[in-house]
Amino acid sequence: MTRVSTNNANAHPIGLEHLSLYEDPVAVFVDAAAAGGAASVCLSVNHPDMLDREARRDVRARITDLDLRISMGDGFLLNADAGLGGLERQLALLVELGSPLANTCAFEPDENAPRDPNRIQDLLGEFCRLAAQADVGVLIEFTPLSHVPTLASAVELVGALAQPNLTIMVDTLHLARAGEGPDDIAQVDPALFGYCQVSDGPTGFDGLAAYMEEAIYQRAIPGTGELPLERVLSLLPRDITVSAEVPSRTLKVDGISSHERARRVLEGSRQVLARSRDEAASL
After folding, report:
1. Which 3 state secondary structure label does DSSP give 166?
2. Whole-angstrom Cα distance, residue 263 to residue 17?
3. Is-contact 201 176, C-beta < 8 A?
4. Is the pTM of this model over 0.90?
5. What element of type H or E holds 88?
6. Which of 33, 187, 230, 255 is the most buried (most CB within 10 A)?
7. What is the DSSP letter of 48?
8. Is 46 exposed, middle or buried (0-12, 13-18, 19+ CB in 10 A)?
9. Helix, strand, coil distribution of the chain in percent, nearest 5
10. What number is the average pLDDT over the span 61-90?
11. pLDDT of residue 11
């Protein structure tokens, strides 16, 4: 397996998120990311392959051989009733992999349940302090599917906790489904943003159940939907990781290989990021 390197990839580095090819073995995902010219990969601490020590060792070696880096570890679910126990074990796994960031989310699948960041504030603070001891940064991902439903609520939560290793994950689909966009990004201190997951889609949606299906299984390749991706990316710090999170059940059902899906996702994302840099330069 060799890594593809292109001038575009070098000029506008894009990562690939595990959810894009979540049903594949992690080794296949890593190979597809490298073949598509990804600069980095995000790994899930809940993927079956990551729960096996030997498999983790093999994946880490593969990532190094392919000149990739691990951008962050995903899957740290905040549940006040469960406490730190599971999070602590996942953090140890993340440290073993060598990831610099842990992505947290206070997932709430019940669309009738009220969203309340206060439910997980203390737990998130505890986890940030634990992660700091391991020199790991923490991201909080906002989404209407969680107890931190909007960018505004994430900003307020980060401000209340005042943990130096805590920043905000911006997922472009979640931002849109929260009813927010570039104008909201522009009102936030750029230092509060730590990472961006990029995907595309229509501007409208049909409620939380449809949105959950979209988010997990059917996102659009950046540049093929209606979201203002270039404007959002132009307002984020240039030095944060931008990584494509684009699961596509349609492409898989159509028989498009994992490598080709990754290539299309990365190329579309790269073009959007390039246009956003041009837009930022014109501001």
Report:
1. strand
2. 13
3. yes
4. yes
5. helix 85-97
6. 33
7. G
8. middle
9. 50, 15, 35
10. 95
11. 66
